[in-house]
Amino acid sequence: MKEKSTRNSIIAGITVMVVNFILLIVGVKIIRxxxxxxxxxxxxxxxxxxxxxxxxxxxxLGLKTAALIxxxxxxxxxxxxxxxxxxxxNGWEDLAGxxxxxAWIIIGLIAGLIIQLILYLYHRWKK
Length: 127
Hints:
Elements: H1 2-31, H2 38-60, H3 64-86, H4 93-126
Helix pairs in contact: 1-2, 1-3, 2-3, 3-4
């Protein structure tokens, strides 16, 4: 059972990592029509690996609610990032989009952990 849980959490983490990386590249290269430099590529890779590892850890530890809410935060952040990229803010859409994206990731992480803790305490109190 533990081996299957480990395998599934690693697959989910890699999936989150790859999809996030691809969507960041699509956002910058296709939507913004900006060139991608090595420094940006490294930052996108590091961010994607961190998000994938957090997702994998949540799932490995059985924190499915926290993982789901964290993923919702990532999805909302990506949607907001693309929305900012498509808006015309006189050059500030890149920075505003990434700050908003990171804010939604943090909100998803914290909200997921808080709701997971509340569920844990509720089930413990119910016994």
